[in-house]
Amino acid sequence: MSHYFITGASSGIGAALAKKCLAAGNSVTAVARRADRLAALGEGHDGFHAAACDVTDAAALAKSIRKSIAKLGGIDCAILNAGMYEPQDSTAIDPSIYARHMDVNYMGVVNALPSIVDNMLESGRGQLAIVSSVAGWRGLPRAAAYGPTKAALISLAESMTFDLAPRGIDIKVICPGFVDTESTAVNDYEMPHLISAETAADEILAGLKTDRFLIKFPRKFARSMNMLRWLPDRTYFRLVGARTGFPQR
């Protein structure tokens, strides 16, 4: 039985992951702001710890991690999944919205790292999975606040690997495509290859068992996005703009 530490666990991918890990007989610490949803998630499971806190509050998050370890033991796998997404029109930029994305999506991961990494270094093993997105590969419409945070997470995971992999900590970065969640429900354009949160959770848990650094899905969409990364800029803007309803001149 393993101890999974999951942020952003009150809905979407995080909730699906928590349910599947509990169903498999593992212990789960679920972190989110909505305490009522966490309570419902862990109902009937002894190996469950609800940590109702905001990932942007570094002190509160560190305290929650300490309580989690005290209750359920060392963390075997941390899936840092908490995030936000608000579509942005770049003709009307509000810096506070961009800062909020960075606080939640990027610093929400960084804030969890000191206590988790210390615990894993002490035990000489562990798995650290950071949820980024294919939106971190190239810019996408309405993602000017969201995409850069996901690109930063990919770079963070790559950089940390040099220090932590030799010390027994397996680093993985997770890049989903479009997943049917509260966040993506606000999109007003076609989302190709949209998958459920449950399917995303299955992909993540399967990927964690491999030796791959990058977990990307759905496969067909991820392959297409990867090919788009290498297109000339002018071609990329025209192709993606036409497909998503943002035609370029």
Report on this structure.
The chain has helices at residues 12-23, 35-41, 58-72, 95-110, 113-123, 147-164, 197-208, 219-228, 233-244, and strands spanning 3-7, 27-32, 48-52, 77-80, 126-131, 169-176, 179-180, 195-196, 214-217. The longest helix has 18 residues, at 147-164. It has nine helices and nine strands. The N and C termini lie far apart (56 Å). It is 45% helix and 17% strand. The strands form two sheets. The chain has a seven-stranded parallel β-sheet, sandwiched between helices. The chain has a two-stranded parallel sheet with strand order 7-8. Helix 1 (12-23) crosses helix 7 and helix 4 (95-110) runs parallel beside helix 6. The protein has a single domain, classed as NAD(P)-binding Rossmann-like Domain (Rossmann fold, 3-Layer(aba) Sandwich), CATH 3.40.50.720. The chain is α/β, with parallel strands linked by helices and 249 residues long.
Fold topology:
Layout: E1 3-7, H1 12-23, E2 27-32, H2 35-41, E3 48-52, H3 58-72, E4 77-80, H4 95-110, H5 113-123, E5 126-131, H6 147-164, E6 169-176, E7 179-180, E8 195-196, H7 197-208, E9 214-217, H8 219-228, H9 233-244
Parallel strand pairs: 1-2, 1-4, 2-3, 4-5, 5-6, 6-9, 7-8
Helix pairs in contact: 1-7, 4-6
